[in-house]
Design brief:
The protein contains 12 helices and 19 strands. The protein has helices spanning about 1-20, 45-50, 105-115, 155, 220-225, 270-280, 320-330, 350-365, 375-385, 410-415, 430-440, 440-460, and strands at about 25-30, 60, 70, 75-80, 85-90, 130-140, 140-145, 180-185, 190-195, 205-215, 230-235, 245-260, 295, 340-345, 370-375, 395-400, 465-475, 480, 495-499.
Length: about 500
């Protein structure tokens, strides 16, 4: 009888232990290597997937999995004390990975560092056209004043990472943050390792250590998860996504487009920009090189972003009209035969090479002289963001833009304002609409964004907008984790459970 009881107890214990999570390490394989791990560059996907909310945290966080909206992170609460000024109450008992304590002075320095002209922080672009003044009230309270007033400032701060006040204005190689993990190894070209912190202020995660590997080929990434060499590949191609037990698809928040540099002839002629749009057969890509569930784009932001305009229609595929516009422009002396270069980012998304080659062929078919150049992520930024190179020829920069926040403020200023870091043109009406929409609330805000979306697409013909993409991920069956649109720009290890 004792033996039977002992056996039953052992079996029960085995059952319980197998049902409980088993903390341990995981391996993640990404398409692009990180060229730096600077916290204020964590809004760039190849950096954010490693350090955003893992090493470097923000004051606020948007719930993209549920319906909680904007949630506390390093700030526990906030309120607008007067128009343009927000007061943030900070979490107590938080330390950085270097052992120093977190307080309001760190927040003040982090804001001033992002806004400084002594660096090239990418997150600064989300605060374009604003003057931001942080004022320490006490160790656990800070006021942030913005001119002009920004009703969504707490949401904007979900993209501003917090660093210790001792952090220099210049970029750092090894990030120090308040997150649940710290950087313990970075061998460029090979791997990055994050290790769990024992002194993290929040809940203890299942993942004790994460190793990041980099493979450009999506089939290689998928195979690594299948064979157990890796646990997660947040980006695989539709061709590889064949196993319902491990593969996930979802409409993500990425928009693929060609940014047009209006400053250089012949791209400064609206007829040329219209011809570029009319020459591309967008529908032909769906279900072939682009996943069938992708949506043809009419804005840089995906539906159902605030102000989404359903009346704006996708440019039709009309090669005859494209040729006619080129002929009209040529008759007026426009140098339509000038070589135009498409500059694309290697391994930016599945099938990027084949998609860009097909677009090159379609543009050449109507009479454009198109060259295609692929570059790595660091060089791509040189073409994508200001200051643009002097003496450059006409360029179309192929890119993906991520906006999962639900408001165009995270896109419009730096993409289209005259002073925007990635804007390829200057238009007074665009600048006015962006300024008014950013300061507005409610229905008026949505109305102004909707008007801007239509004006950019129909009148300015700002870009060659292509697709709102569908993402595919592969996750090992030993993990309890479902990718979402958020995994385009960050992959929180604390959300991953081990079975």
């Amino acid at each position: 009888m004792k033996r039977s009881l002992l056996l039953a107890a052992l079996l029960l214990g085995s059952t319980l232990s197998s049902a409980q999570a088993a903390p341990g390490p995981i391996t993640i394989v990404l398409p692009e290597e990180a060229d730096l791990l600077e916290p204020c560059m964590a809004t760039r996907s190849n950096i954010g997937r490693v350090i955003m909310q893992n090493v470097s945290e923000t004051l606020t966080e948007l719930d993209v999995r549920g319906d909680k909206g904007l949630m506390p992170r390093l700030a526990t609460s906030w309120e607008e004390t007067e128009p343009g000024t927000w007061r943030f109450h900070l979490r107590e008992g938080v330390t950085f990975s270097d052992g120093t304590s977190f307080d309001a002075k760190d927040v003040k320095h982090s804001i001033e560092r992002v806004m400084s002209d002594k660096n090239a922080c990418e997150s600064r672009r989300y605060f374009g056209g604003m003057t931001i003044t942080p004022t320490v009230v006490d160790d656990n309270t800070i006021d942030v004043t913005v001119d002009p007033a920004q009703p969504i400032l707490p949401l904007l701060l979900s993209l501003l990472t917090i660093v210790p006040e001792e952090t220099p204005m210049e970029f750092v190689r090894e990030p120090v943050g308040t997150g649940p993990y710290k950087l313990t190894e970075w061998t460029p070209g090979q791997r990055i390792v994050l290790t769990e912190r024992d002194d993290y202020w929040g809940d203890k995660p299942d993942v004790t250590e994460a190793t990041y590997l980099f493979r450009a080929d999506p089939s290689v990434r998928a195979a690594m998860v299948q064979t157990g060499e890796a646990d997660i590949s947040p980006s695989i191609s539709q061709i590889e996504a064949t196993n319902p037990a491990t593969d996930f698809s979802y409409l993500d928040s990425e928009t693929v487009y060609l940014r047009i540099d209006h400053n250089i002839e012949p791209l400064n002629d609206v007829r040329i920009r219209k011809a570029l749009n009319l020459a591309i057969d967008r529908d032909a890509f769906l279900g072939t090189l682009v996943p069938e569930g992708a949506i043809l784009a009419t804005a840089i932001v995906p539906p159902p972003t605030l102000g989404w305009n359903p009346d704006v229609k996708v440019f039709p595929y009309d090669p005859a009209e494209a040729r006619k516009l080129l002929e009209e422009a040529k008759a007026d002396g426009v140098k339509v035969d000038t070589p135009i270069t498409i500059i694309a980012r290697s391994a930016n998304f599945p099938n990027v090479t084949e998609i860009m080659e097909a677009i090159q062929a379609q543009l050449q078919e109507v009479g454009f002289n198109i060259e295609l150049k692929f570059v790595e992520v660091a060089e791509h930024e040189v073409y994508y963001s200001k200051p643009f190179k002097e003496g450059r020829g006409p360029q179309l920069v192929a890119a993906m833009h991520d906006n999962s926040k639900g408001d165009p403020s995270f896109s419009m200023f730096f993409k289209y304002d005259s002073k925007g870091t990635q804007s390829g043109f200057s238009d007074a009406k665009v600048d006015d609409l962006i300024a008014r929409a950013s300061a507005a609330t409610g229905d008026e805000r949505a109305k102004l964004w909707s008007e801007l979306i239509a004006y950019l697409h129909d009148d300015v013909v700002a870009d060659v907008l292509l697709f709102h993409m569908v993402g595919f991920s592969r996750v090992s069956e030993r993990l309890d984790y479902t990718p979402t649109m958020a995994t385009n720009s960050m992959l929180q290890l604390s959300e991953i459970k081990i079975k």
